[in-house]
Design goal:
By secondary structure, this protein is of the alpha+beta class. It contains 1 helix and 8 strands. A 4-stranded mixed sheet has the order 1-7-8-5, with helices on one face. 15% of the residues are buried.
Length: 146
């Protein structure tokens, strides 16, 4: 009888140890999943920051290209023109400001602002594509270059 009781206790202890190991494995897997989730969120946030920085740099390059074309046309005098292409929408104002990007289409879009020196015939709210800057008697005019 004693022998049977001892063997029954040994079997129970073995079963409990198996259950204990299962719980420990489940706990370890849960902790690893939480760590993986945190790393995924951090990586995703960094990716968004990199994409936003790339967008700002692209728009700043476009803004500088437009500003350079306008300044070149105005500096070279009457009758001179220059063409430029941009994948972004842009606005050119008589206050000598150029704004690249359109916040009205998306609240997450970033605008980039740069300047030019000279007289503009009117404010221009332009889209993407190929454009021509024309100097007509010292006054700048922009038109789509087809």
């Amino acid at each position: 009888m004693k022998q049977e009781l001892i063997s029954a206790l040994v079997k129970m202890l073995r079963k409990n140890k198996k259950g204990q190991v299962s719980i420990e494995i489940m706990y370890s897997v849960g902790v690893l999943l939480i760590i993986f989730l945190l790393l995924t969120v951090m990586t995703f946030n960094k990716k968004i920051d990199v994409e936003r920085t790339r967008d700002i740099i692209d728009k700043k390059n476009d803004c500088n290209q437009i500003s350079s074309a306008i300044n070149r046309v105005l500096a070279l005098g009457d009758g001179y023109n220059a063409t430029f292409r941009t994948p972004h929408t842009f606005d050119v104002y008589t206050t000598e400001l150029i704004i690249v990007g359109d916040v009205e289409t998306s609240n997450t879009e970033v605008e980039v602002v740069c300047t030019f020196e000279g007289e503009l015939s009117e404010d221009y709210l332009l889209g993407t594509g190929k454009w021509k800057a024309i100097n007509e008697k010292g006054v700048l005019r922009l038109e789509e270059n087809i």
